[in-house]
Protein 1
Amino acid sequence: MLQFNAPVTEIIQQRFSCRSYCRESVDVDRRERLQAFIADLPPGPFVRLRTAPFGSRPRFELAAATEKDGKSLRGLGTYGFIKNPPAFILGVMTPADYDLEDYGYLMEAIILYATSLDLGTCWLGGTFTKSSFARKMDLSAAETMPAVTSVGEYADPERKRRGIASRTAGSDRRLPWENLFFHDTLDTPLSRDESAGYVTPLEMVRLGPSASAEAPVQASPTSMGAWQVPASRIPATDSSTGRSFG
Ligand SMILES: Cc1cc2nc3c(=O)[nH]c(=O)nc-3n(C[C@H](O)[C@H](O)[C@H](O)COP(=O)(O)O)c2cc1C
């Protein structure tokens, strides 16, 4: 079990993609706590201890500018999408069954822990220069780096407060419940009332980050009581530049 320092449902509601950070490096205390969380992710694949659902084991590291060396991340490109990132969570994986699912699960766990430390984050699946980030992680020929995450102090705490309020009121730009969750085919929407004990977990899925704002998650219950969540492979596109980052 992953241990967070607050109820994970609260942390999920606080998280949003923060693309603008304060210039200062993340303070030593929170840097160390985030590093410790990453280091303590139990190694897999052990059935009882594993944290990644499918048992593959991506490796993650925090690359953070320090007070002494504030320029250490200067060569890592994010194409101007991300302003003043003082740190990144970098991760690499070796090919395995469901490797992307495990990678996403663990990266999101680290993101939620960072959120609980009151740090902003943003997944970067396409808007980063893979070669320079790969050098930081000594990527081997067998490994790939599907995405990284920027981390830092929010440049605009007010935006953070508004983010939380709009999510709580359900007024963010996300698709409504009926467009996301279905019985077994996409023409039979699943209402909240029909979701019984799954309302909270499904709402948390709805609030999660998504590489594709147009086609986020579609989940439907199976007869066995499990939920199938087909992965969307449709890349997202930044409307101002047309650049795809999914
Ligand atoms: C796998 C993945 C890759 C993403 N890649 C990028 C990216 O390259 N650049 C970017 O600005 N945002 C990226 N995002 C963030 C999404 O745009 C964001 O999660 C989505 O718009 C929902 O907004 P929210 O995170 O504020 O809830 C990515 C998200 C995910 C899950």
Protein 2
Amino acid sequence: MSFVDRRRFLQSSLGTVGALALGGPLSADDAPAPGGAPSAPFDSLFLTWRQDPTTTMIIQWIGDADAPDKIAYAPLEGGVWRTAAVLAKPFTGTDQQVLRCELTGLKQGSEYKFSIGDAKPQYRFRTMPAKATDEFCFVSGGDAGTGSHAVSSNLVAAKQDPYFVLIGGDLAYDNGDSPKTFRRFLQNYSRTIVDSDGRLIPLVSCIGNHEVQGHFGGRRDQSPSYLSVFDC
Ligand SMILES: [Fe+2]
């Protein structure tokens, strides 16, 4: 796919998603210290954005229809816990769901913790700094795949403690017809892309030809796995 076509495709893939922010207490005070990689049933969990990366965060994973319907989140160092709704939609071509929760109204350049439903583990992330002139690090790559080489690259990327990872196409090499391969990519990412403080590192991506059946000139329905997850 050409650069221009890829950019247009990405722009058009960002639609609408909502999450309901609700005030209220929570019951995660006895959870372990926040941080570290997710595990089953959240072993494909990752972060991304569709809006302002300084004040929002999307938490997303592939799971079953009976997955928790809310996420609790709070500033890392104290502050009010809030909850946000998890929305479910089909992970096309499977009986699984894409579970998505968008947090909004976050503080710029800040750290947060969150937990999913009644599960004990707490995870960590940070929002982007307030100013474009603030210094930050990110990692860029592409043509990833799911083998040992990809896992090794992930580990090197995570060691840089980046604010986010940018993958410019060809994530899983599912070629538009292997949801299992695409989920495996997410599982690898979730397990390995964690920074030295235990924070999850958001993934920003654009579609590549190996996300699409026939590779070039395809229709949207020929990229079922990638667009199930990234077509917000
Ligand atoms: Fe490629």
